[in-house]
């Protein structure tokens, strides 16, 4: 009986991924991932993983996209053993192996996505610069962190931090703006 149920769930997930992949061609990537992020339970985790596996530039093994989590750029690379917490977002990024994030972590596509230099043109019409943000790996990112710059290997970011400049490797950093507090033991 368990084999039949597992086979049915696998088939159901595959059909949903196919449906969402076709829908992506019609309405675009971002609206589809917003809908997929809201699928609950283990079923949602499986659908998100298989969908992103098909559509992201690269996606490793043992990656969890929790409820409400979404990746908005198809050129994103995610390594192995990564857990993105509930309601987290990822723009253009390269995430190494062995990363865990708490809830409401936002990894932006750099700090210059929007320009405001021309007062004659509304901000939403001005061209910004999309940058790839890199988390090197073996990172632990606390709740409500905003990452706009690179994070070194083995670094821990404290809850509520705003990462506006690169953070070195093997340290604990926190604050707004985020700064190194101490070396990691």
How many helical elements?
3
Task: Give the distance, in angstroms, between the N- and C-terminal Cα atoms.
Answer: 49 Å
- Write the element-wise H/E pattern from the N-terminal end onward: HHHEEEEEEEEEEEEEEEE
User: What is the gyration radius calculated from CA atoms?
Assistant: 18 Å
Tell me the strand order in the biggest sheet. Answer: 2-5-8-11-13-15-16
Q: Kindly estimate the percentage of residues that lie in beta strands according to DSSP.
A: 15-25%
Structural class: alpha/beta
Helix content: 25-40%
What is the mean pLDDT? 96
| Unreliable sequence segments | none
Shape: globular
Major sheet summary line? 7 strands, mixed
Number of strands: 16
Task: Give a concise summary.
Helix content is 26%, strand content 23%. The chain is an alpha/beta fold.
Describe the fold and architecture.
With 185 residues, the protein is of the alpha/beta class. It has three helices and 16 strands. The protein has helices at 2-27, 29-36, 41-55; strands at residues 58-59, 63-65, 70-71, 77-78, 82-84, 89-90, 93-95, 99-101, 106-107, 133-135, 139-141, 146-147, 156-157, 162-163, 171-174, 179-183. Helix 1 (2-27) packs across helix 3. It is globular and about 55 Å long.
């Amino acid at each position: 009986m368990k084999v039949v149920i597992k086979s049915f769930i696998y088939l159901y997930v595959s059909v949903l991924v196919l449906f969402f992949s076709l829908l992506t061609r019609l309405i675009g990537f971002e609206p589809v991932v917003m809908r997929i992020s809201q699928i609950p339970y283990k079923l949602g985790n499986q659908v998100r993983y298989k969908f992103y596996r098909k559509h992201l530039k690269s996606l490793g093994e043992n990656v969890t996209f929790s409820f409400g989590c979404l990746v908005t750029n198809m050129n994103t690379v995610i390594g192995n053993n990564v857990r993105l917490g509930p309601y987290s977002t990822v723009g253009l990024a390269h995430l190494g192996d062995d990363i865990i994030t708490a809830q409401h972590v936002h990894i932006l596509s750099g700090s210059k996505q929007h320009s405001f230099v021309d007062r004659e043109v509304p901000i939403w019409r001005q061209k910004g610069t999309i940058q790839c943000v890199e988390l090197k790996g073996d990172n632990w990112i606390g709740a409500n962190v905003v990452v706009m710059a690179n994070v070194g290997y083995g670094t821990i970011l404290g809850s509520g931090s705003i990462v506006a400049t690169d953070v070195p490797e093997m340290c604990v950093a926190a604050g707004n703006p985020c700064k190194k507090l101490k070396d990691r033991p």
